[in-house]
Amino acid sequence: PLNGRNVLQLVGLTPGINATRSYRNSANGSGSIAAVGFSANGGRNVSNSIMLDGSPQEVMGYNQPAYVPSPDAVQEFKVQTNSLSAEYGRTGGAVVNMVHRSGGSEFHGVLYEFLRNNVLDANGFFNNQNGREKAAFRFNQYGFTLGGPLTKSRQTTFFFVNYEGIRQVNPGNAFFTVPTAKMKQGDFSESPFVIYDPATINNAGARQPFANNRIPTGRIDPVAKKLASYYPDPNRDGIVNNFFSQEGSRYQSENVSVKLDRRISQSNNLFGRFSWNNTDNNLANHFNSVASPDTGISGARNRSITLDDTHTLGTWVLHANYGYNSNPRSAPDEEVLPSSLGFPAYMDPQVQYRVFPRIQPGGYANLGGNATWIIGNKFETHTGTADAAKLVGRHAFKFGGTYRVNRVSNKRPNSPAGLFSFNNTWTRRVFNRGSEGDGFASMLLGLATGNQIRLEPELAVQVRYYGLYLQDDWRVNDRLTLNVGLRWDSDRPLTERFNRTSWFDFNAQLPLTAPGMGPLNGGLRFAGVDG
């Protein structure tokens, strides 16, 4: 019984495991940081190794697994928290080994669906308070598995396929403070605060109030007027928390995994597995527009590939494994140019992403999404492993090595389409003190307290890793076995693939001189420059 059917939650049944609350609530394992938020025997969380078909699934970042199969696609699941063989390295805690199911000589399949629905739920407190019915909640998780032979002999080639889909509609309720219809026209007669005219400051530093607390139409900035039109009208009384929304988020996931096994000969077995999982979490669009606060899509495109070959040569068992994992975040697909909102056309080519800018009038709901949802990190891992095993008397020898390249294409935008902040500084009686004025009134006048637009570099960093090991499981007698191993690991320094990195060198001699001072030391150095 797994809520969300994330098999990594089974790790919590193992002695010595301490988990975070987010781990216990993680309904999806693929690409999820929370899914590995557990500590093994006091080790740091998110430092565990997650293996699928002998291929590590962790990607650089927070060590999250790129892909975790659904329970119906898992043949074996094993958790090791101590006394690890030298075969396993680069972990600060547990090793979780999963084996993907394979097809057999007969056809077998499963069809399933799990359902939750708001029909069985009670209404929420805030819905009752506002006289609203229950918001819709739907959870459908469905799929199938099918496995069997691919040849007439039913002895050499087999397949297994698993599909799982999730469709979820989450209920929601949220309060917002939005300007009234009169305020959007410059009329602040409903506000308890006096709105002062910044163009009327006298020698004492005081301003005069607008007549009838109303900004003349000719003084309203055209860009501000356009932005204000994206606010919905209140649906509750008052001027604070006057908009209530039941809009919820919508989540969907597509999970497909295919495994092909080929028995080339009595001494050679080959298999390949390809798995992909697309997730999209459409956040609640409370204003029903592109300017709704903190709306957008948080999604991922998880990919996992394993190729594995096992060959018997005399008394030796030779094995090779290649794994590729990818866990990119999805990017926004909006097409909002600054010029369409009234900003100068020269701003259009300056935006890093064509999204609605972030508008922050003090005391009111923001417009525009948070740049957090535009993060487009792409994690990639290439891993090659080779090993050989042999039984010699009472000794089971195994040695091998692994090579891994961890890559991150880092996209972390900050104000990619502009951030504009407004408060009551310009519309209160005295510039630097007082509680009069209004942030939205300052916005209508086009007078911001801070603006910025930033272009963040999209770095491509990577770390190379090597590991070699030798293991001897020596059965001394029927009651005593010694597991003896030696392992060498090397994590190489992090580099930027195109040398776009810099650091501060305290000994760098600057070409600047200053009268009466000696040489000036300390400055930035850049990779790939001056050796």
How would you describe what is shown here?
By secondary structure, the chain is mostly beta strands. It is 5% helix and 41% strand. It contains 5 helices and 27 strands. Strands 7, 8, 9, 14, 15, 16, 17, 19, 20, 23, 24 and 25 form a 12-stranded antiparallel β-sheet that branches. The chain has a 4-stranded mixed β-sheet with strand order 4-3-6-5, with no helix packed on it. The protein is globular, with a radius of gyration of 30 Å. The two termini are 59 Å apart. The mean pLDDT is 92.
Please describe the biggest sheet, giving its number of strands, its sense, and whether it closes into a barrel: 12 strands, antiparallel
Helix content: under 10%
User: What is the terminal separation in angstroms?
Assistant: 59 Å
Strand content: 35-45%
Number of helices: 5
Oligomer: single chain
Task: Quote the average pLDDT.
Answer: 92
Give the radius of gyration. 30 Å
What is the number of strand segments? 27
Q: Note the overall shape.
A: globular
Structural class: mainly beta
Low-confidence stretches: none
Sum this structure up briefly.
With 531 residues, the protein is mostly beta strands. 5% of the residues lie in helices and 41% in strands.
Question: What are its keywords?
Answer:
globular; mainly beta; 27 strands; 5 helices; twelve-stranded antiparallel β-sheet; 41% strand; 531 residues; four-stranded mixed β-sheet; single chain
